[in-house]
Every structure is written in structure tokens, then in C-alpha cells.
Amino acid sequence: MNKLKPKNYVVGITGASGGIYGVRLARTLLALGHSVHLVVSNAGWRVFKEELGFAASDREGFLNEQFGSYPGSLHYHPIADIGASIASGSFRTAAMIIMPCSMGTLSAVAHGSSDNLMTRAADVMLKEGRPLVLVPRETPLHAIHLENMLKLSRLGVKMIPAMPAFYYGPTTMDDLIDFMVGKVLDSLDIEHSLFRRWGE
């Protein structure tokens, strides 16, 4: 992958199933040399426990294990730290991605609720006119889910549902995860080689 000028990216990981998506996204950005400002919801940590074998008593160890060997800089912000740098529009960030995004977090963003750092950071992206990407992970969807997505889409938020493709011949779980991460990077015009494109 081509190296780019380092930028600040905010990555939010919620309690929707598929925390590995956000982990892989953060790793990829760090591998490119970018700074990642990571926010994980309380339910997101629970998903890490259930899906990734995270030991609930060792968050620092988990973060070091997952992200400690990349050239970029990781900045972890507790979700209750409403005074963190990313809570202010004066702190320059290139984009924010919530991957995966629970329906609860999506609803909070759609209605301007910013009672924790993740939703406040998303609100900052909206008010500053900066790129915000949400990766909803829920099925089936009811009308409220869809209306919230439509509302945010009309505000310019990129909606990239966690719907991996199969035309490129994936053979492993990693292939499916990389496809979704690649689609997010595509939406932000970040070069990558995470999947084989149609026609290649």
C-alpha cells in the first residue's frame, strides 16, 4: 500500500457484532502511518470479549496486542472522556469512521445526541462539515433504522452497511473483513490493495 501524508482519523467501535471490522480498519490506517484516535463503547468492549477473546481486566494489554506494532500513532480515548481532543472542532481530523455502528449509536448521531465521546465526536464532524462514515451492522432493519440512515445520508454521511461482496472470490473470513475495510477506505480516497477489484 502507498504511504500517504499522515493524518488524524477517528475510529469508533460500538457494540454491534463485528468489532473485528473496526480493529482491522484501525490497523490498516496505522500501517499507512496515520494517527488513529480510537473510541470503544462499553458494549464494544463486551463484543471484544465475546468475539475476540479480550480479557476484560486488561484493556491496555489488548490495545498493545492489537495495535502496538504499526508505524502510525494510536490514541485511545475512553468513551466518558468528553474533554478529549476529538470532542472539539478546533482539533483537526481528516475523517471519522464508526465501524461497526450499532443502531443505538446511529440513532444518537441522527438526532444530535452527544452524551458520550463517540457521539460528540460524530457531532463535531457534522458541524464542521468533515467526512463521517458509518458502517451499520444489523439485520433485519425496521423503519426507524432506515429513516435514521436516510436522515444522515441527506446530511452527507456515508452509509456503508457491513455487506461484503463475493464477486472477487473470497476464500477466508479475512477476505470478507478486508473487503469492507477497503470499501471504507475507498469512500475516503485512501489507496489500498485489500481486495481484488472488478475487472482486475
TrEMBL record:
All residue ranges annotated as the Flavoprotein domain in the record: 7-188
Keyword terms, alphabetized: Flavoprotein, FMN, Prenyltransferase, Transferase
Domain of life (superkingdom): Bacteria
GO molecular function, one term: flavin prenyltransferase activity
Binding site for FMN: G15, A16, S17, S41, S102, M103, G104, T105, R137
EC class name: transferase
Gene3D superfamilies referenced in this protein's UniProt entry, alphabetically: Flavin prenyltransferase-like (3.40.50.1950)
Ligase as UniProt keyword: no
Annotated residues for binding of dimethylallyl phosphate: Y167, K183
Cited InterPro entries: Flavin_trans-like, Flavoprotein, UbiX-like
Enzyme nomenclature, EC number: 2.5.1.129
Catalysed reactions, semicolon-separated: dimethylallyl phosphate + FMNH2 = prenylated FMNH2 + phosphate
Stated family: Belongs to the UbiX/PAD1 family.
NCBIfam families: PRK06029.1, ubiX_pad
Physiological role: Flavin prenyltransferase that catalyzes the synthesis of the prenylated FMN cofactor (prenyl-FMN) for 4-hydroxy-3-polyprenylbenzoic acid decarboxylase UbiD. The prenyltransferase is metal-independent and links a dimethylallyl moiety from dimethylallyl monophosphate (DMAP) to the flavin N5 and C6 atoms of FMN.
HAMAP family: ubiX_pad
Protein name: Flavin prenyltransferase UbiX
Organism in which the protein naturally occurs: Paenibacillus graminis
